[in-house]
Design brief:
442 residues, Four Helix Bundle (Hemerythrin (Met), subunit A), Rossmann fold, 3 domains, 7-stranded mixed β-sheet, 20 helices, flat
Protein backbone atom coordinates (compact mmCIF):
# COMPACT_ATOMS: atom_id res chain seq x y z
CA UNK A 1 0.00 0.00 0.00
CA UNK A 2 1.08 3.62 -0.66
CA UNK A 3 4.06 2.35 -2.72
CA UNK A 4 3.90 5.10 -5.33
CA UNK A 5 3.26 7.89 -2.80
CA UNK A 6 6.10 6.73 -0.54
CA UNK A 7 8.52 6.65 -3.45
CA UNK A 8 7.61 10.15 -4.63
CA UNK A 9 7.69 11.71 -1.15
CA UNK A 10 11.09 10.20 -0.44
CA UNK A 11 12.38 11.65 -3.70
CA UNK A 12 11.21 15.11 -2.60
CA UNK A 13 12.78 14.76 0.87
CA UNK A 14 16.06 13.53 -0.60
CA UNK A 15 16.34 16.77 -2.56
CA UNK A 16 15.60 18.83 0.56
CA UNK A 17 18.22 17.00 2.58
CA UNK A 18 20.73 17.82 -0.14
CA UNK A 19 20.56 21.52 0.77
CA UNK A 20 22.61 22.72 3.74
CA UNK A 21 20.17 25.59 4.12
CA UNK A 22 16.65 25.95 2.81
CA UNK A 23 15.03 29.00 1.30
CA UNK A 24 11.34 29.76 0.95
CA UNK A 25 11.69 28.90 -2.74
CA UNK A 26 13.17 25.46 -1.93
CA UNK A 27 10.23 24.73 0.34
CA UNK A 28 7.68 26.08 -2.15
CA UNK A 29 9.12 23.87 -4.92
CA UNK A 30 9.08 20.83 -2.63
CA UNK A 31 5.49 21.44 -1.57
CA UNK A 32 4.39 21.61 -5.22
CA UNK A 33 5.83 18.11 -5.69
CA UNK A 34 4.21 16.86 -2.47
CA UNK A 35 0.88 18.31 -3.62
CA UNK A 36 1.15 16.56 -6.99
CA UNK A 37 2.13 13.26 -5.33
CA UNK A 38 -0.93 13.41 -3.05
CA UNK A 39 -3.30 14.22 -5.92
CA UNK A 40 -1.87 11.33 -7.95
CA UNK A 41 -2.47 9.12 -4.90
CA UNK A 42 -6.17 10.03 -5.28
CA UNK A 43 -6.33 12.17 -2.13
CA UNK A 44 -9.29 14.54 -2.08
CA UNK A 45 -8.42 17.91 -3.71
CA UNK A 46 -9.64 20.08 -0.81
CA UNK A 47 -7.88 17.84 1.71
CA UNK A 48 -4.62 18.24 -0.23
CA UNK A 49 -5.00 22.02 -0.42
CA UNK A 50 -5.57 22.39 3.35
CA UNK A 51 -2.79 19.91 4.15
CA UNK A 52 -0.20 21.76 2.03
CA UNK A 53 -1.15 25.12 3.54
CA UNK A 54 -0.71 23.79 7.06
CA UNK A 55 2.77 22.48 6.20
CA UNK A 56 3.68 25.75 4.45
CA UNK A 57 2.65 27.80 7.48
CA UNK A 58 4.94 25.74 9.70
CA UNK A 59 7.80 25.20 7.25
CA UNK A 60 8.33 28.82 6.19
CA UNK A 61 9.52 30.05 9.57
CA UNK A 62 12.18 29.66 12.22
CA UNK A 63 11.08 26.05 12.91
CA UNK A 64 12.71 25.05 9.59
CA UNK A 65 14.69 27.91 8.08
CA UNK A 66 16.60 28.50 11.31
CA UNK A 67 17.21 24.79 11.96
CA UNK A 68 20.59 23.09 11.70
CA UNK A 69 18.87 20.21 9.85
CA UNK A 70 16.12 21.92 7.83
CA UNK A 71 15.44 18.94 5.55
CA UNK A 72 14.77 16.68 8.53
CA UNK A 73 12.55 19.33 10.10
CA UNK A 74 10.35 19.40 7.00
CA UNK A 75 10.00 15.60 7.14
CA UNK A 76 9.07 15.87 10.83
CA UNK A 77 6.39 18.47 10.05
CA UNK A 78 4.95 16.37 7.19
CA UNK A 79 4.86 13.33 9.49
CA UNK A 80 3.04 15.23 12.23
CA UNK A 81 0.53 16.69 9.78
CA UNK A 82 -0.11 13.26 8.22
CA UNK A 83 -0.84 11.86 11.68
CA UNK A 84 -3.23 14.72 12.37
CA UNK A 85 -4.89 14.32 8.96
CA UNK A 86 -5.66 10.64 9.64
CA UNK A 87 -7.09 11.27 13.10
CA UNK A 88 -4.18 11.59 15.53
CA UNK A 89 -4.57 8.27 17.33
CA UNK A 90 -6.54 5.04 17.17
CA UNK A 91 -9.93 5.44 18.80
CA UNK A 92 -10.85 1.72 18.97
CA UNK A 93 -14.36 0.47 19.63
CA UNK A 94 -16.54 1.87 22.36
CA UNK A 95 -17.87 -1.28 24.02
CA UNK A 96 -18.38 0.13 27.51
CA UNK A 97 -22.02 -0.82 27.81
CA UNK A 98 -24.24 -3.50 29.29
CA UNK A 99 -24.04 -6.63 27.10
CA UNK A 100 -25.12 -7.71 24.61
CA UNK A 101 -23.68 -4.70 22.76
CA UNK A 102 -25.00 -4.28 19.21
CA UNK A 103 -22.52 -3.19 16.50
CA UNK A 104 -23.89 -2.42 13.03
CA UNK A 105 -21.81 -2.88 9.89
CA UNK A 106 -23.14 -0.86 6.96
CA UNK A 107 -21.92 -0.16 3.43
CA UNK A 108 -22.42 -0.81 -0.25
CA UNK A 109 -22.57 -4.26 -1.80
CA UNK A 110 -19.11 -5.57 -2.64
CA UNK A 111 -17.25 -3.50 -0.04
CA UNK A 112 -16.39 -6.60 2.02
CA UNK A 113 -19.01 -6.14 4.73
CA UNK A 114 -19.75 -9.81 5.43
CA UNK A 115 -16.09 -10.82 5.53
CA UNK A 116 -15.31 -7.80 7.72
CA UNK A 117 -18.01 -8.87 10.18
CA UNK A 118 -16.33 -12.28 10.51
CA UNK A 119 -12.84 -10.71 10.79
CA UNK A 120 -14.08 -8.33 13.48
CA UNK A 121 -15.64 -11.27 15.29
CA UNK A 122 -12.29 -13.06 15.34
CA UNK A 123 -10.51 -9.88 16.45
CA UNK A 124 -12.90 -9.42 19.39
CA UNK A 125 -12.81 -13.09 20.35
CA UNK A 126 -9.00 -13.00 20.42
CA UNK A 127 -9.31 -10.04 22.81
CA UNK A 128 -11.40 -12.11 25.22
CA UNK A 129 -14.87 -11.07 24.05
CA UNK A 130 -17.77 -13.37 23.20
CA UNK A 131 -19.03 -12.11 19.81
CA UNK A 132 -22.13 -13.27 17.94
CA UNK A 133 -22.67 -12.80 14.20
CA UNK A 134 -26.00 -11.76 12.73
CA UNK A 135 -26.70 -12.06 8.97
CA UNK A 136 -29.36 -9.41 8.32
CA UNK A 137 -28.92 -9.16 4.54
CA UNK A 138 -31.96 -10.99 3.14
CA UNK A 139 -31.61 -9.50 -0.36
CA UNK A 140 -28.22 -10.73 -1.53
CA UNK A 141 -28.34 -14.41 -2.51
CA UNK A 142 -26.32 -16.65 -0.17
CA UNK A 143 -25.34 -13.75 2.15
CA UNK A 144 -26.77 -15.59 5.16
CA UNK A 145 -25.04 -18.82 4.16
CA UNK A 146 -21.72 -17.00 3.62
CA UNK A 147 -21.67 -15.57 7.15
CA UNK A 148 -22.78 -18.92 8.56
CA UNK A 149 -19.80 -20.67 6.92
CA UNK A 150 -17.38 -18.00 8.12
CA UNK A 151 -18.75 -18.35 11.64
CA UNK A 152 -18.24 -22.12 11.50
CA UNK A 153 -14.62 -21.64 10.39
CA UNK A 154 -14.00 -19.36 13.37
CA UNK A 155 -16.22 -21.25 15.84
CA UNK A 156 -18.25 -18.07 16.43
CA UNK A 157 -22.04 -18.42 16.94
CA UNK A 158 -24.19 -17.18 14.03
CA UNK A 159 -27.86 -16.31 14.46
CA UNK A 160 -30.02 -18.61 12.26
CA UNK A 161 -31.69 -15.83 10.28
CA UNK A 162 -34.88 -16.61 8.38
CA UNK A 163 -34.69 -14.94 4.93
CA UNK A 164 -38.49 -14.69 4.94
CA UNK A 165 -38.40 -12.30 7.90
CA UNK A 166 -37.65 -8.61 7.68
CA UNK A 167 -34.14 -7.39 8.60
CA UNK A 168 -35.66 -5.41 11.44
CA UNK A 169 -37.28 -8.53 12.94
CA UNK A 170 -34.06 -10.53 12.48
CA UNK A 171 -31.98 -7.92 14.32
CA UNK A 172 -34.47 -7.61 17.20
CA UNK A 173 -34.64 -11.38 17.70
CA UNK A 174 -30.87 -11.80 17.29
CA UNK A 175 -30.08 -9.37 20.12
CA UNK A 176 -32.55 -11.21 22.38
CA UNK A 177 -30.98 -14.54 21.35
CA UNK A 178 -27.46 -13.31 22.09
CA UNK A 179 -28.63 -12.08 25.50
CA UNK A 180 -30.00 -15.52 26.30
CA UNK A 181 -26.72 -17.13 25.19
CA UNK A 182 -24.59 -14.72 27.28
CA UNK A 183 -23.03 -13.08 24.23
CA UNK A 184 -21.47 -9.69 24.85
CA UNK A 185 -21.06 -8.23 21.32
CA UNK A 186 -23.59 -8.65 18.52
CA UNK A 187 -22.12 -7.94 15.06
CA UNK A 188 -24.91 -7.17 12.60
CA UNK A 189 -24.13 -7.63 8.90
CA UNK A 190 -26.70 -5.39 7.19
CA UNK A 191 -27.79 -5.32 3.56
CA UNK A 192 -25.96 -3.30 0.91
CA UNK A 193 -26.78 -2.02 -2.56
CA UNK A 194 -24.73 -1.23 -5.64
CA UNK A 195 -25.45 2.43 -4.84
CA UNK A 196 -27.08 4.42 -2.05
CA UNK A 197 -30.87 4.60 -2.36
CA UNK A 198 -33.76 5.74 -0.18
CA UNK A 199 -35.03 2.23 0.64
CA UNK A 200 -31.60 1.09 1.86
CA UNK A 201 -31.09 4.09 4.12
CA UNK A 202 -34.61 3.85 5.53
CA UNK A 203 -34.01 0.18 6.40
CA UNK A 204 -30.69 0.99 8.11
CA UNK A 205 -32.23 3.89 10.02
CA UNK A 206 -34.99 1.59 11.31
CA UNK A 207 -32.47 -1.04 12.45
CA UNK A 208 -30.39 1.62 14.18
CA UNK A 209 -33.45 2.97 15.98
CA UNK A 210 -34.56 -0.54 17.00
CA UNK A 211 -31.31 -2.05 18.35
CA UNK A 212 -29.54 1.21 19.37
CA UNK A 213 -26.05 0.08 18.36
CA UNK A 214 -23.06 1.24 20.39
CA UNK A 215 -21.10 1.45 17.13
CA UNK A 216 -22.20 1.97 13.52
CA UNK A 217 -19.22 1.08 11.33
CA UNK A 218 -19.10 1.89 7.64
CA UNK A 219 -17.24 -0.72 5.59
CA UNK A 220 -15.64 1.07 2.63
CA UNK A 221 -13.52 -0.32 -0.21
CA UNK A 222 -10.16 1.53 -0.39
CA UNK A 223 -9.74 0.44 -4.02
CA UNK A 224 -12.60 2.73 -5.09
CA UNK A 225 -10.62 5.83 -4.05
CA UNK A 226 -12.68 9.02 -4.29
CA UNK A 227 -15.91 6.98 -4.50
CA UNK A 228 -15.18 5.53 -1.05
CA UNK A 229 -14.96 9.08 0.31
CA UNK A 230 -18.26 10.15 -1.31
CA UNK A 231 -19.99 7.02 0.01
CA UNK A 232 -18.62 7.62 3.51
CA UNK A 233 -19.91 11.19 3.49
CA UNK A 234 -23.40 10.15 2.42
CA UNK A 235 -23.66 7.33 4.98
CA UNK A 236 -22.39 9.65 7.70
CA UNK A 237 -24.83 12.43 6.78
CA UNK A 238 -27.78 10.06 7.14
CA UNK A 239 -26.70 7.53 9.81
CA UNK A 240 -24.14 9.53 11.80
CA UNK A 241 -21.65 6.65 11.77
CA UNK A 242 -19.08 6.15 14.54
CA UNK A 243 -16.16 4.97 12.43
CA UNK A 244 -14.89 3.26 9.32
CA UNK A 245 -13.44 -0.12 8.38
CA UNK A 246 -11.36 0.45 5.25
CA UNK A 247 -11.02 -2.80 3.30
CA UNK A 248 -8.57 -3.91 0.58
CA UNK A 249 -5.95 -1.42 1.71
CA UNK A 250 -3.26 -3.96 0.83
CA UNK A 251 -4.34 -3.81 -2.81
CA UNK A 252 -4.42 0.00 -3.06
CA UNK A 253 -0.96 1.32 -3.93
CA UNK A 254 -2.30 4.89 -3.95
CA UNK A 255 -4.02 5.08 -0.55
CA UNK A 256 -6.05 8.24 -1.22
CA UNK A 257 -9.10 7.03 0.70
CA UNK A 258 -7.09 6.39 3.88
CA UNK A 259 -5.68 9.91 3.75
CA UNK A 260 -8.95 11.69 2.92
CA UNK A 261 -11.82 9.91 4.59
CA UNK A 262 -11.21 11.20 8.14
CA UNK A 263 -10.91 14.83 6.98
CA UNK A 264 -14.06 14.66 4.84
CA UNK A 265 -16.35 12.83 7.30
CA UNK A 266 -14.84 13.82 10.65
CA UNK A 267 -15.11 10.14 11.62
CA UNK A 268 -12.08 7.95 12.34
CA UNK A 269 -10.82 4.90 10.48
CA UNK A 270 -10.97 2.24 13.21
CA UNK A 271 -9.81 -0.84 11.31
CA UNK A 272 -8.17 -1.67 8.00
CA UNK A 273 -8.43 -4.88 5.99
CA UNK A 274 -4.99 -5.92 4.74
CA UNK A 275 -5.65 -9.27 3.12
CA UNK A 276 -8.19 -11.98 2.41
CA UNK A 277 -7.47 -14.18 5.43
CA UNK A 278 -9.76 -13.94 8.43
CA UNK A 279 -6.95 -12.62 10.62
CA UNK A 280 -6.10 -9.83 8.13
CA UNK A 281 -7.85 -7.05 10.05
CA UNK A 282 -5.75 -4.51 11.93
CA UNK A 283 -6.42 -1.58 14.21
CA UNK A 284 -5.69 1.62 12.32
CA UNK A 285 -2.94 3.68 13.93
CA UNK A 286 -2.48 7.07 12.17
CA UNK A 287 1.03 7.57 13.60
CA UNK A 288 2.21 4.15 12.44
CA UNK A 289 0.61 4.59 9.01
CA UNK A 290 2.25 8.00 8.58
CA UNK A 291 5.63 6.45 9.37
CA UNK A 292 5.07 3.74 6.75
CA UNK A 293 4.00 6.29 4.14
CA UNK A 294 7.23 8.21 4.73
CA UNK A 295 9.33 5.03 4.54
CA UNK A 296 10.15 5.08 8.26
CA UNK A 297 8.78 1.61 8.91
CA UNK A 298 6.34 0.51 11.60
CA UNK A 299 8.30 -1.20 14.34
CA UNK A 300 5.42 -1.30 16.86
CA UNK A 301 3.13 -3.21 14.49
CA UNK A 302 6.00 -5.55 13.61
CA UNK A 303 6.58 -6.29 17.30
CA UNK A 304 2.85 -6.91 17.86
CA UNK A 305 2.72 -9.32 14.90
CA UNK A 306 5.79 -11.13 16.21
CA UNK A 307 4.30 -11.42 19.71
CA UNK A 308 1.10 -12.93 18.27
CA UNK A 309 2.91 -15.34 15.94
CA UNK A 310 5.97 -16.51 17.86
CA UNK A 311 5.73 -19.32 20.38
CA UNK A 312 7.56 -18.09 23.49
CA UNK A 313 8.67 -21.59 24.55
CA UNK A 314 10.10 -22.34 21.10
CA UNK A 315 11.82 -18.96 21.07
CA UNK A 316 13.55 -19.80 24.36
CA UNK A 317 14.62 -23.18 22.97
CA UNK A 318 16.02 -21.44 19.88
CA UNK A 319 17.94 -19.01 22.08
CA UNK A 320 19.63 -21.90 23.88
CA UNK A 321 20.58 -23.46 20.53
CA UNK A 322 22.02 -20.17 19.30
CA UNK A 323 24.17 -19.92 22.41
CA UNK A 324 25.49 -23.40 21.66
CA UNK A 325 25.81 -22.64 17.93
CA UNK A 326 23.59 -25.64 17.11
CA UNK A 327 21.07 -24.01 14.72
CA UNK A 328 19.89 -26.80 12.38
CA UNK A 329 17.71 -26.99 9.28
CA UNK A 330 14.89 -28.16 11.56
CA UNK A 331 15.18 -24.85 13.43
CA UNK A 332 15.36 -23.02 10.10
CA UNK A 333 12.06 -24.63 9.04
CA UNK A 334 10.47 -23.75 12.38
CA UNK A 335 11.46 -20.10 11.97
CA UNK A 336 9.91 -20.04 8.48
CA UNK A 337 6.63 -21.30 9.98
CA UNK A 338 6.71 -18.46 12.51
CA UNK A 339 7.35 -15.94 9.70
CA UNK A 340 4.41 -17.33 7.70
CA UNK A 341 2.12 -16.54 10.63
CA UNK A 342 3.20 -12.90 10.52
CA UNK A 343 2.23 -12.35 6.89
CA UNK A 344 4.01 -11.99 3.56
CA UNK A 345 7.69 -11.07 3.43
CA UNK A 346 7.02 -7.78 1.64
CA UNK A 347 4.44 -6.84 4.29
CA UNK A 348 6.98 -7.54 7.05
CA UNK A 349 9.72 -5.62 5.21
CA UNK A 350 7.43 -2.58 4.88
CA UNK A 351 7.41 -2.34 8.68
CA UNK A 352 11.19 -2.37 9.03
CA UNK A 353 12.67 1.17 8.99
CA UNK A 354 14.45 1.77 5.68
CA UNK A 355 13.36 -1.59 4.22
CA UNK A 356 10.01 -0.37 2.89
CA UNK A 357 11.90 1.27 0.01
CA UNK A 358 13.68 -1.98 -0.84
CA UNK A 359 12.91 -2.97 -4.42
CA UNK A 360 12.17 -6.67 -4.58
CA UNK A 361 12.75 -8.50 -7.89
CA UNK A 362 9.62 -8.73 -10.03
CA UNK A 363 9.68 -12.52 -9.88
CA UNK A 364 10.02 -12.50 -6.09
CA UNK A 365 7.05 -14.27 -4.58
CA UNK A 366 6.90 -12.92 -1.05
CA UNK A 367 4.24 -15.39 -0.08
CA UNK A 368 3.48 -18.77 1.39
CA UNK A 369 4.25 -20.35 -1.99
CA UNK A 370 7.97 -19.64 -1.63
CA UNK A 371 8.05 -20.61 2.03
CA UNK A 372 5.99 -23.69 1.25
CA UNK A 373 8.60 -24.82 -1.27
CA UNK A 374 11.34 -24.45 1.34
CA UNK A 375 9.29 -26.47 3.84
CA UNK A 376 8.73 -29.20 1.23
CA UNK A 377 12.48 -29.48 0.63
CA UNK A 378 13.31 -29.71 4.34
CA UNK A 379 10.50 -32.22 4.93
CA UNK A 380 11.97 -34.44 2.17
CA UNK A 381 15.21 -34.77 4.12
CA UNK A 382 15.93 -37.43 6.72
CA UNK A 383 16.36 -36.35 10.33
CA UNK A 384 20.10 -36.93 10.00
CA UNK A 385 20.28 -34.69 6.91
CA UNK A 386 18.33 -31.90 8.60
CA UNK A 387 20.66 -31.97 11.60
CA UNK A 388 23.86 -32.43 9.62
CA UNK A 389 23.43 -30.77 6.19
CA UNK A 390 27.15 -31.15 5.51
CA UNK A 391 26.45 -34.79 4.50
CA UNK A 392 24.22 -33.68 1.61
CA UNK A 393 26.16 -34.86 -1.46
CA UNK A 394 24.95 -34.75 -5.07
CA UNK A 395 22.87 -37.94 -4.97
CA UNK A 396 21.15 -36.97 -1.71
CA UNK A 397 20.29 -33.53 -3.12
CA UNK A 398 18.80 -35.14 -6.24
CA UNK A 399 16.67 -37.46 -4.09
CA UNK A 400 15.43 -34.52 -1.98
CA UNK A 401 14.59 -32.46 -5.08
CA UNK A 402 12.60 -35.35 -6.57
CA UNK A 403 10.77 -35.99 -3.29
CA UNK A 404 9.81 -32.35 -2.82
CA UNK A 405 8.83 -31.67 -6.43
CA UNK A 406 11.59 -29.09 -6.83
CA UNK A 407 14.97 -28.92 -8.57
CA UNK A 408 18.51 -29.53 -7.35
CA UNK A 409 19.09 -25.79 -7.87
CA UNK A 410 16.24 -25.07 -5.42
CA UNK A 411 17.85 -27.40 -2.86
CA UNK A 412 21.24 -25.73 -3.35
CA UNK A 413 19.67 -22.27 -2.96
CA UNK A 414 18.00 -23.30 0.29
CA UNK A 415 21.25 -24.65 1.72
CA UNK A 416 22.97 -21.41 0.75
CA UNK A 417 20.28 -19.36 2.54
CA UNK A 418 20.55 -21.59 5.60
CA UNK A 419 24.33 -21.20 5.79
CA UNK A 420 24.03 -17.42 5.40
CA UNK A 421 21.43 -17.29 8.18
CA UNK A 422 23.59 -19.45 10.43
CA UNK A 423 26.59 -17.24 9.76
CA UNK A 424 24.60 -14.10 10.60
CA UNK A 425 23.26 -15.65 13.81
CA UNK A 426 26.79 -16.65 14.79
CA UNK A 427 27.80 -13.00 14.28
CA UNK A 428 24.99 -11.91 16.59
CA UNK A 429 26.06 -14.46 19.18
CA UNK A 430 29.67 -13.28 19.18
CA UNK A 431 29.38 -9.53 18.87
CA UNK A 432 25.74 -8.48 18.84
CA UNK A 433 24.80 -5.61 16.52
CA UNK A 434 28.39 -4.32 16.49
CA UNK A 435 29.50 -7.48 14.72
CA UNK A 436 27.20 -6.97 11.75
CA UNK A 437 28.50 -5.55 8.48
CA UNK A 438 28.31 -1.77 8.35
CA UNK A 439 25.36 -0.44 6.39
CA UNK A 440 23.27 -3.61 6.75
CA UNK A 441 20.35 -1.66 8.22
CA UNK A 442 21.09 1.73 6.65
Amino acid sequence: MFDSLTEKLNSVFKKLRGHGKLTEQNISDALKEVRLALLEADVNFKVVKDFIERIRARAVGQEVLGSLTPGQQVVKIVHEELVSLMGGSNSGLNLSYKPPIPVMLVGLQGSGKTTSAAKLGKFLRDKGRKPFLVPADVRRPAAIEQLKKLGEQLSIPVYPSDPQESPLTICRKAVQWADGESGDVVLIDTAGRLHIDEDLMKELEQIKKEVIPREVLLVADAMTGQDAIHVAKKFNDILDIHGIILTKLDGDARGGAALSIRAVTGKPIKFVGVGEKLDALELFHPDRMASRILGMGDVLSLIEKAQEAIDEKKAQELQKKLLKDSFTLEDFAEQLKQIKKMGSIDQILSMVPGMGRLKLPKDFQASEKELGRVEAIINSMTREERRHPEILNGSRRLRIATGSGTTVQDVNQLLKQYLQTKKMLRTFRKGGMKGLPRGLFS
